[in-house]
Amino acid sequence: MMELPPTRAGHIGRALSAAAILLFLAMPIVIILVTSFGADGIGTFPPQEYSTRWYEQMAAPGGNWATSIALSSLIASLTTVFSLILGVTAAMALARGRLPLHAAVYGLVLAPMLIPQVVIALGLFLFFEPAGMLGSPLAIALGHTVLAAPIAILIMISTLKGIDERLEDAAASMGASRMTIARRITFPLATPGLIAAAVFSFITSFDEFFIAQFLSTPDTRTLPVLVFNALQFDVDPTVTAVSAVLIALAILALALVALVRKLGGHRNSHNALPIEPLT
């Protein structure tokens, strides 16, 4: 069947349609960013006056917002460490090993991504409550790991499958130990995937609400829980400043992942094997 060449009007129409869709999707983000600089106390759009008072209130030392941000950062950092440990070990077993019931194990590892978060949160509450660990940053971090680890595992499996196993076989044939192969070949080539897994694990934990809501106490409230409480009975304009910061962090994180993957791919294409002897 003969295909008609695209016309200039068709190109313009597709460009306008794409621009309209992108504008529609970005409109809530733009509204939040503009409203966060409003000076009034009710969060109107567009603002009548502009100010940075809500950012100053968010960053005030000793305030609820600064305390929650610090707590969420601590929990997200712990979650990132736990997720990377689980992600690397599980991905090595699934991508490199020959496990019996491989499909069943793979499905079990990814099950937390399919189960509703509120169900997982309830199960974690019933697990940690008898142990008296409600409100513990460690308990919340372990709960967040249940959600973040599958993402890290998926990223690491994709990364490991993209590494040519012949490089590892060549190093082994020259007498390199498994530890040397992992240290000098596998992990350097997998660095972009490790960074991507760390970034997405951190974001998953920092933005998670249900598990933090079930496991937190009035003295230990993560940032999403504090945002929910601030909007439950009233509208606190500080929430717009917090949302704007979270949007900026997400954009920077995605840009970092894209940059690392680009640099990692460029480096690996020019220097796939280390120059120094594998000893």
Tell me about this structure:
There is one protein chain. By secondary structure, the chain is mostly helical. It folds into two domains: 29-59, no CATH class; 68-238, MetI-like fold. Helices cover 72% and strands 0% of the residues. Helix 5 (117-128) crosses helix 6 (137-161). The longest helix is centred in the N-terminal third of the chain and has 33 residues, at 64-96. The chain is globular, with a radius of gyration of 24 Å. Residues 271-279 have low confidence and may be disordered.
Spell out the blueprint of helices and strands.
Layout: H1 8-35, H2 53-58, H3 64-96, H4 102-110, H5 117-128, H6 137-161, H7 165-173, H8 178-189, H9 191-207, H10 210-215, H11 223-232, H12 238-270
Helix pairs in contact: 1-12, 3-6, 3-9, 5-6, 6-9, 7-8, 9-12
Family: Belongs to the binding-protein-dependent transport system permease family.
Keywords: Cell inner membrane, Cell membrane, Membrane, Transmembrane, Transmembrane helix, Transport
Membrane topology: Multi-pass membrane protein
Specify the CATH architecture of the largest domain: Orthogonal Bundle
Which CATH C-level class of the largest domain is it?
Mainly Alpha
CATH topology of the largest domain: MetI-like fold
Low-confidence stretches: 271-279
TL;DR?
The chain has 279 residues and is mainly alpha-helical.
Feature tags:
MetI-like fold, 279 residues, mainly alpha, single chain, 12 helices
